[in-house]
Amino acid sequence: MLSKTIEAALNKQIRIEAESSQAYLAMAVWAEVKGLEGISNFMYDQSDEEREHMLKLVKFVNERGGHAHISELNAPNVTFNSFKEMFEKLLAHEIFVSESINELVHISLQEKDYASHNFLQWYVAEQIEEEAVARTILDKVNMIGDDKGGLYLFDRDIQQLTVSSAADTPAE
């Protein structure tokens, strides 16, 4: 059974994940109308992934005797000055989500809710990967600068982007 404190914190995270999905959907649309098909498809996939993260939380709250709340969402930013700015906002948002997940973990330990703590470890590992991907993308974007040919190649290649993070490395 979830404490009211954990339930409220998890419901806050449900909203954050839903807003993440909407933000990435807006980024996908922006990139698509700019003719950046690869970036757009990458962001559509990110949006879907964030929605899956939200649904995983919803199911967990309900299975633990709580009541998941689906609330109104803040409207996402829908325009960007450049694809670089868009990816800077992506990284900043992933850092925000990581901080929120870390706070959830802290609350779960304070509440001695070890089932929630265990469940949240997946999100901790996921955020390590999400931040690593965003940083890798920004490194590539910074290398490209204003080179249109570089942007063309990046747009084509982003869908194959994978990042191996510390979380993926087996412990010895």
UniProtKB/TrEMBL annotation:
One Gene Ontology biological process: intracellular iron ion homeostasis
Alphabetized, the UniProt keywords read:
Cytoplasm, Iron, Iron storage, Metal-binding, Oxidoreductase
Q: Which residues form the Ferritin-like diiron domain?
A: 1-145
Main location per the UniProt record: cytoplasm
Localisation per UniProt entry: Cytoplasm
Classification via CDD domains: Nonheme_Ferritin
Gene Ontology CC entries for this record: cytoplasm
Q: Which residues bind Fe cation?
A: E17, E50, H53, E94, Q127
State the EC number(s).
1.16.3.2
A GO molecular function annotation here is: oxidoreductase activity
Q: What's the catalysed reaction?
A: 4 Fe(2+) + O2 + 6 H2O = 4 iron(III) oxide-hydroxide + 12 H(+)
Q: What class of enzyme is it?
A: oxidoreductase
Pfam entry (one)? Ferritin
State the family named in the UniProt similarity comment for this chain: Belongs to the ferritin family. Prokaryotic subfamily.
| Function summary | May alleviate iron toxicity in the presence of oxygen.
**What is the name listed in the Swiss-Prot or TrEMBL entry for this protein?**
Ferritin
